Amino acid sequence: MIEAREALEASAARRIVRDSRTAAVLPDLDRQLAEMRAHVASGDVRRFVAADDAFHAAVVDHAGNALVADFYARLRDHQQRLRHHLLAVRAGDLAGSLDDHERLRSALGASDDVAYAAVLGEHVARYRGAL
Q1: Is 82:131 a contact under the CB 8 Å cutoff?
Q2: N or C: which end of the chain has fewer CB within 10 A?
Q3: Which ranges in 1-131 belong to alpha helices (H)?
Q4: Per-residue pLDDT tens for 100-115?
């Protein structure tokens, strides 16, 4: 399941870059990053996971394919519950996860979909086997 989400999101990032939609998605990503920083500082895992989820969903949604966005959302529901439990147990991973998201935003901000996919792969590897 996690590999399917990774593939869909990497494809969405490619489409955003290809279609010059980067400027449209960055404010959403910046908003989620601000929330994530606050939740790392407070240790609020539940809200961190919600902002994490919204970050990734924003990338898929801004790619402009409603069918893919719907499928991604279906995968997301199950995985979000598992991710919440994992981060509750491994709360120290919040800062590392935040760093991954900062790097994802930087890659997309540079319109570098190849770097985005590479960072996304590292981010997913952080949870592979646990989810």
Answers
A1: yes
A2: N
A3: 2-18, 22-42, 45-62, 66-89, 93-109, 113-125
A4: 999 999 999 999 999 9
**pLDDT of 130 above 90:** no
Residue 61 has a CB neighbour count (10 Å cut-off) of 18
pTM, rounded to two decimals: 0.88
**Angle, in degrees to the nearest 10, between helices 93-109 and 113-125:** 170
Residue that has been written with the tokens 């930087």 in this structure: 106
Q: Which two tokens stand for residue 84?
A: 């919440």
Q: For helices 22-42 and 45-62, what crossing angle results, to 10°?
A: 170
Instruction: Report yes or no: 97 and 87 within 8 Å, Cβ to Cβ.
Output: yes
Residue-range domain boundaries for the chain: 2-125
Decide if domain 2-125 falls under CATH 3.40.50.150.
no
If one counts every other C-beta atom within 10 angstroms of the C-beta of residue 66, the result is 9
Hey, what amino acid is at 88?
A
